Amino acid sequence: MNDKKDQTSQEDSRHLNLAQDPGAKDAVDGGISRRGFLGLAAVSILLAHGGQQSPRSESKNGIPYRTLGRSKEKVSLIGLGGYHLGKQADPQESIRIIRAGLDEGVNFLDNCWDYNGGESEIRMGNALRDGYRQKAFLMTKIDGRTKAAATSQINESLRRLQTDRIDLLQFHEVIRATDPDRIFAEGGGIEAVLEAQKAGKVRFIGFTGHKSPDIHLKMLATASKHGFTFDAVQMPLNVMDAHFDSFEKKVLTVLLKNDIGVLGMKPMGDHFILDSKTATAVECLHYAMNLPTSVVITGCDSLPILQQALQAARSFQPMNSSQVAALLAKTAKAAEAGQFELYKTSHRFDGTYANPQWLG
Questions:
Q1: What is the SS3 assignment for the chain?
Q2: Which end of the chain, C or N, has fewer beta carbons within 10 A?
Q3: What are the tens digits of pLDDT across the range 102-123?
């Protein structure tokens, strides 16, 4: 399994959007309209929900906790991203970061079967020894679209993480219009995940993606057609997504209507939003926290970066509409063409594009 920096070298820099693939866009649009899956009303998420899901009384060591959708699980407002933990040069430092986060009040841990050739899960598994597993709400992801591939990856993740139970298992990188149908087909990945859930290996089920809100909507609609509702959905939510091909504007309302846990990722667009010089790290984190997110997942590859995230969570106060508008005004111009959201506009973040064999 290749490192994501290796994947970057394979990037073709072409801008990817559904308009370049009319067939895919028709499939997405048609899928939603045929199923009549929850009309998307023009609702102001910020005004209706900003900050309301973070009562200050629900906290651990000053870290606010929110409810993960209808699961009713309580999760920390900040979550530790697994990819960056595997990039840290010193494995022991990764373990110190994870344990420090758990000791400070964070309980949500993010990971994936393919992160850093499995190193991210191996390090997290080592960190969760000595009683730390009991402190964590453990999430990981798989790439397998077939039952066989998904089964193999689930079992490998359990082994690496040194646990017999994953709290939330998610289908990773739902970034193609064909992914939902493959996952829910006969012999598809959903069969493996449901079997793992029945066996007690998995508690809750979700999916992630960073490419297109329309593909997220198709995944939700396809699940609905098969009588299934996800427990959680992960997507980019940040100060630039709000302006460009927006998950916030298109998907968030649907998740809230169905009481599906909202996992915000890429609050800083990896580091690219910070590179734009339009918003600070804390502003980026606070914007994502101000949405009705259950948890905001951020990469922490050092103890100082972890402390920055912890302090952002502890200092968060609900933003009013004027504060939100002022922040969005600062980022509007830079966000126009998605140049700082490369996960939407290039293959740079698409591990399964560089490694299609992971899909099965």
A1: CCCHHHHHHCCCCCCCCHHHCHHHHHHHHHHHHHHCCCCCCCCCHHHHHCCCCCCCCCEECCEEEEEEHHHCEEEECEEEEHHHHHHCCCHHHHHHHHHHHHHHCCCEECCCCCHHHHHHHHHHHHHCCCCHHHHCEEEEEECCCEHHHHHHHHHHHHHHHCCCCEEEEEECCCCCCCHHHHHHCCCEHHHHHHHHHHCCCEEEEEEECCCCHHHHHHHHHHHHHCCCCCCEEEEECCCCCCCCCCHHHHCHHHHHHCCCEEEEECCCCCCHHHHCCCCCHHHHHHHHHHCCCCEEEEECCCHHHHHHHHHHHHHCCCCCHHHHHHHHHHHHHHHCCCCCCHHHHCCCCCHHHHCHHHHC
A2: N
A3: 999 999 999 999 999 999 999 9
